[in-house]
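Here is one record:
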Amino acid sequence: MHQQVATSHLDTDLLTRFFAEFLDDQAFAEFRRVERMLATLKEQGTTIAGYPLIRPSDCGPITAALAEIFDASRDRFRTADPLVVDRFEELIGGFVAFVQALYPTQSTSALILHAEVLLLTGEADRVVELLEHLARRPYAVVDSLNHCSEIVFLYAQAQLLRGAPQEIDVCFASFGAWLCAQPRGPRPFGMADRIAPLASVTSGSPGVLARMIRWSSSRIVRARRGRNGIAGIVWSKLAAVIFRLISTACLYALSWSHKRGPVFHARRGHPKGTLVTRAMGGIGDLLMMEPGLEVLAKKQGGPVDMAIPRKFFPVFANNPHVRTIDIDGPPINLGRYRKLANLSICPASRYESRNRPHIRKGRVESFANGMGVGRSALRRQGWHINQFIDDETSAKCDAFIASLGFTRRLIGVQPYSRDSYKDYLHIEAVIRQLAERYDVLVFHHVANGLPEGPGIASTAGLPLAVSLALVSRVEAMVSVDSAFLHAAAAYDIPVIALFGPTDARTLTRHHRKVEIVWQAQSYSCVPCWRNEDTPCSLTGLLGVSPCLATIEPGRITAAVDRAMGVV
């Protein structure tokens, strides 16, 4: 009898587990789908250049699927159902951690979604912890004005839920005006409505326009409360519109004073000088910012503050026109500056996406324009990129070259770009042919997959400062459209530039010694200005560009010989 009871209990347990798993499979099918998507993403390898195969477009569907889960299960999130909340936390936390180092924009989208979930579950402290770094550094939000505003607004809401409005170090009147002043920013009428609740309850800068916006915001909020009776309802709606129009007019006026850079923190100083911010690389883009920074420095009579990640400090090392600040360091008091140029929302990408394929403006000019430097001022200054090497770095370069035992004339090669559609398919053959007559130094961050043998060495593993300075030691550079193409221009090193989808004439305008090798005469579609996520119009495929692949290696080695003065 006892054995039968035990068997009955065992059968009941098995049945319970079966139905639990069945119900889990039905209720959490979307969770399982996202888990599979994330697992697949993590299994992807790297290109031959050592960069990840996954693209931002591969990450977007996961964020969208997580948002669908949130929208479909809001009631369960609101009641903090552990079966849903814990599983969601595990998924979104793992996704953000994986994507953050690869594509900050995609990780920020997921970060905002996570904060919205936590706000709904009442975990304001965790929202503050999650968003505080970026909310106090809105200049560090990459490539999205919407992300910038969402983070600041969510952070402020969380602080209010915590009962700590004094911790919100943002003047929402000025912040709203700054958003409206940005290219493709929101319209003042819509922003007046959005900032009203927060502007009416938080402190702000003492300017007349900012005070007017706060005053009209409080009236907008009061009008929304409504009144009894027909006359009261009509009056409330009319008052809301009137005060919203007043706030809109003030935002519009204030946005003109913030056209190039705002002061939207509550703390005010005695503003002077310019702050330029760039939350990401690449190295080539940072190099092409140098002429514009030099114009700004000379105009204001002192170095420009440049907030960038610390790992990129070597790009501006010893430059008397630039003072580098760690963008991830202590929050920068924007009240100290007269002007903010936020290049984290990339002006070059914005211009190119809007005008592709008819692009006439190079990145030196685009970045200068993003800093408020016009074409005429840039022309007077010159487009040349300046680099400055100190004695210690110079000695390291000499020691490294001596350790290689090279005895012939030295050629530099950057074989790969961050984007595979810019790569030249036969670069290994070029390196081996060059090594028959010259010593070759390959500029790349990993050694895997690169040619080896006598007369060939790599900069893999060297500090960035040394790699950049080593460019000054080569007699000619062969490069795809990437960073060391522009580093060579800084040292007036002759460059053999390999181009295809992008416009060589536009992107090498700042070079004094360049020979372009491309197939524009054979391919009428060159330059098409496609990107990594756009297939070639000829093959319909991503990756390799036929206009580059069909360049004969002999054309490149012959161009090197000409640059070296070898007949």
